[in-house]
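Troubleshooting: if your tokenizer reports a length mismatch, compare your output against this known-good record of 139 residues.
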Amino acid sequence: MNKKFLISWVVVFVVWMAGSFAIHGAWLAELYAQHPNLYRTESDTQALFYLMLIAHVIMAGAFVWIYQRGAEDKPWLTQGIRFGIAIALLAVVPTYTIYYVVQPMSGNLAVQQIIGESVLVLILGIIVAFLNKSTDAAT
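Known-good structure output:
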């Protein structure tokens, strides 16, 4: 592990947590409230919040690690966008589609989860690409 990796990991973790809160804790909160049988109560969720932190630490580390292994000597912005799209297509779209199939939630909620999380991983892709751009790479 080098300094660039650790800085990227911390930044991605913070932005991911903040983005997830903005999406799920604010923007979609009203839609989640319409499905009370699918989700834990606020107090139950808070009691397990440490697991949310651990999950985001793991995701952020893996996100940076995968990006760094696949980065090429090309413009960082297009690489970040490409990486964000790849993660959205690999994880976000299928995950929330599967949730929609197996849980009795509204299609509107599923679509908004997919949109919100896809935009977030696109932003994270751009951030990780910026933080890991090579001084020799094209800009």
